Structures are given as C-alpha cells and as structure tokens.
Amino acid sequence: MSYSALIVDDEPDAVSTALLLLDRYFPDLISPKYTARSVNEATNIIDNHLPEIVFLDINLSGGTGFNVLENVKDADFGIVFMSSHNDYASQAFQASAVHYLKKPYADEDFIEAVHRAINKKEHKHSDKIQKLLESMRADKPVYIPIQTSDVIQYVPLSDVVYFESDMRYCEIYLISGQKKLLSKNLKYYTDLLQYADFFLIERSQLVNMHCVVKLHRHTPSVEMSNGHTLKISRDKKKAFIDALEKLRPLL
User: Fold this and answer.
1) DSSP letter for each residue of the chain
2) Is this model's pTM higher than 0.85 or not?
C-alpha cells in the first residue's frame, strides 16, 4: 500500500529537502509526490488529487498554510506543518496537525512526522472499515455521502453500480442512471469497499458485483444493471470470475 503526498512550500530548497527525504526513507511507501508553492496551487492540487499526507509551510505566496486548509473542499489528510518559527505551533495543532517540524529539522524528526501521518490515516480508515462491517453484519443499510456546495445527498451503497476515475476525479454511477462527482479518490473506495462485494476490474473502475447482469468471458467484460458494458483487465479476469462465482454459486 502506498500514500500520496503533497509538499507545500515557496522555498525551492525546502521542497528539494523534503523530496530527498521521502525518496531516501520512503521510496515505495510515498507515491505519487506533488509540490506546490502558493495557496492557490496547493488548493487546486488537494481538490483534484486528494493527497493523503500534506507537508504544509506556514508562510506561503498569497497567504498562509492555514488559508489552504480553509479553502480546500475536503481536508481528510494527515497534516505536517513546517516553519522556521515556533510561533504557530499552538495554532497548527488546533488545525489537527499530526506533527510540527521546525526548520531546519533532523531526518529523524521528518521520519517521525511521516509515520504519525500514516498512523492517523490508517487508524481513521480502519475505524470506517469496522463500522462498515458492523453495519453489514447487522443487515443495516450503508450510505455514501455525496456533497455539493450546500447539499449532502445520502446514497445507499446498494444503489451504486460502479465507481470510475480518470486519475483526477472519481465519479459514481447509480442504478437510477445518475452520475455524481465524488470528493474522494478511487483508491479510498477501493480500500474501504473490498469487504462489501466491490471489485476493481481495472485500474479506473470499481464495480458492485451485485449489479453485474452479464459476464462475457472471452472479451472479457461485464454488463452492469444500468446497461453499461465495462472491460475487465486480463490480469484481473480470473480473480474477478472466482469472486463472482463465490458470491453467486451456480447450480
């Protein structure tokens, strides 16, 4: 499993140092890595790519790191603040920071900050998985919130036909024929719904196996309950068919 990260700093040397440390100590664990130098650039990257860890300098071009947190649509990531001063430490932790790095920082402090951010993400994610499993065992409906500017729509998980991502956005296709834009990336739903009969048939599509109405073995592809036909990656074909037949035993 890997985690995406964003480094927000308007000092090129500070960005280079953080990238160097990520490559040195977390070459496989942290990927991809994004960088931003201003409030607006950081806001756009967070909204479009949803990084799981954000290294956030306090003083930026066009504002502060706190302005970034105010501007983004979804601040569901581990925050590591970085600054040359201790003046903002209290305010940083009030903003739910997992660590505060005072520049220049030692390698050990940086490593600890990354581990804290990952542990926070893992703990939060495991709590959501546990709640999902408890609801499923109790035969209770599970809902996915879809948020627009001023409205939150609660969609039953059973109404979801599939998720689709183009690497920037993730969309959800519903039994009703509607298509909605989601605030989280496909990896988030893939990890969360692996216990709920959803299967990643190729890197950009996560399908509800209960909504599969036809399986074409030779193509290979599936026809979904909303009439859409989706291709299955050949390296996932066998695992998907096995999972589907286990879910729907044949006479």
Assistant:
1) --EEEEEE-S-HHHHHHHHHHHHHH-TTTEEEEEEESBHHHHHHHHHHH--SEEEEESEEBTEEHHHHHHH-S---SEEEEEES-STTHHHHHHTTEEEEEESS--HHHHHHHHHHHHHHHHHHHHHHHHHHHHHHHTT---EEEEE-SS-EEEEEGGGEEEEEE-SS-EEEEETTS-EEEESS-HHHHHHHGGGTTEEEEETTEEEEGGGEEEEETTTTEEEETTS-EEE--TTTHHHHHHHHHHHS---
2) no
Q: Which fold has domain 3-130?
A: Rossmann fold (3.40.50)
Query: Selecting from 2.102.10.10, 2.30.290.10, 2.40.50.1020, 1.10.10.10, what CATH number does the domain 143-247 have?
Result: 2.40.50.1020
Residues 121-138: what's their mean pLDDT? 65
Residues 185-207: tens digit of each pLDDT: 788 788 778 778 899 999 899 99
pLDDT in tens, 46-65: 888 888 899 999 888 888 88
